Amino acid sequence: MKTLCIRCVLWVFSVLFIQHAAQAQAQVTPPVLIENGNPKKPKVKKQWRFAVDIDAGFASPANAELSDVFKGGLNASVGVKTAFLKNKLWVRPLAGLKYYWKEVELGQSRREAFRTWKAGFELQYKAFTLNKFSFFPIIRADQNWSVSQFTKIADEKLNDVVLQTTDKVLTGSGVSFDAGIMVVRSGDLYVKLDYEYYKPDLKVNPELVREMLAAGFIMPDHKVYDCSSINLSVGVNLNFKK
Amino acid sequence: MKQLYLLFLIGAVALGCGDKDKYLYTQIPTEVVLNTDTKVLIKDNSIMYVRLDSGNIIRGITDKVAFTTTDQFKSFAYGGYSVGTAKTPYNYDRNTIVVGTGTSTAPVVYYSFDYGSTWASAAPAFSPVINTSGFYSTELVSVSYIDSNNLMLAYQQKSYTTADSRKFYKLNLTTKVATRVSYFDDAFQPITIKFTDKKTGWMLLYKNSSYSTFMSKTLDTGRTWSTPKAIDNRYITGLQTGTKGNMCAIEDFGNAYMSTDSGVTWKKPSTDIKLTHAYMVNQSVIYGVTGESLLKSTDTGVTWNTVSSTGYEYINMKKLHFQDAQNGVMFGDQKLYITADGGVTWNVLLYPYPYILE
Predict the structure, then answer these.
(1) ipTM over 0.90
(2) CB-based contact A216 B353, cutoff 8 Å
(3) CATH for A2-23+49-241, among 3.40.50.1100, 3.40.50.300, 2.160.10.10, 2.40.160.20?
């Protein structure tokens, strides 16, 4: 899975490179109208600007509740954005994924994964530009669907399996809020650093509750987890005009 | 940009890492089901007898300690005890527990009148002395409670040439003298005796020649016994006496037999069942536990219906005790459960969870 993540990051850079090459090919001089020997200012017409942002990166749990279990995870999102307020404010509907995982030994080799699918909106405001870098404070709100599960990663048949439950162990949903900053270089590559506040109320699989009770422990059937995280992502901005 | 790439590389390395001993679900705070102090009751111990009395008082003994609780073991009192190696089965009668130890010809009888908390012993002097000549075996098979000053000792002697003999001695706990009250050379083997008052008692007998278990009754503290009445062609070892002539005889891993007329007539299940143990609550309610389920009969033991069959370790249960038709306990070795709904659901009270035995 580490390889997979590294590949994801490399994909972003690959897309960036392709986009760079395409832009270099397509650069044209803006047309200038000449009337009676004098250049005429073209008629300005409102043009909607659209772009696609794709990013992926590293998520670091900001709370011991999660960081004790996972040291880091994968964070990715994709969304189409459009501009307002003279291209200063960008609104970006998006879909995303946050994925924490690790391999564990519960009597047999398994992978514990905590996966969150996201759908929401992001607002990016172009605050200022310094040299070739533009700085965008961002805020974001998402609806999240989270699930934690153990999957067998080896076909071992052992009698001493610590945890029998292999289905979804924890499930839940909730709204998350992000705030951070995005630094865009030359309008294509960007780096995003943000803090996500997410505290879902996760329901425990009833089978696990029964399993714990059989082992002599009373486990509540739900718990509010602090899944807040600090996210650092790199992304590409694919611009196109309508 | 190189620093940024390095940052992402470090992040990528951290992916898929985490404490191998912690899982997301283990972050949920849990409570232990049982009081860990109950370790003293079950570690290296085996539960022998438990009863549930009014006021939700649970009393019992293991092979090393006696215990009492009124709050389902959130708190409990216990005390160790020691008796010799049992020669006879333990005989339980309300607050009384008696057992014979030592040898058959020189036994030491241990008895407790407070549910096993304190014990006393008596080495009886026999009158007359037990004569073993002519018998190839002399065995003390049962010690039973008569009243607070008297116990009944039942002997069986086997002979090659004549019929087997059974002898009954009444042990006076004050004088420590065991006086023979009756004897029979009729090849019936005494199994167990239960007295309901200081004169009235019942005895289970087995006869090899007919492969049957019989019931006999005394009304004069064992001096005379009624002609044995056959119950069934089975070896029946358990006997429970109730009020108004209600009796229940329980076969080991078999049927339960019920009499409502002081043992004159007996009813048995319409189809054979394999009961580990049965408990008669009253004339109309009997509970029985099998290796797979809890059964209940409400027609004097003829038909039995399953009360519950899943979720509990019936296979490890050895005995039942019910205070009334709804409230009871079942137990076996290191496990004790309690019910308040007639056995439909059970709560665990004692269990050898790893955190208990640690």
Answers:
(1) no
(2) yes
(3) 2.40.160.20
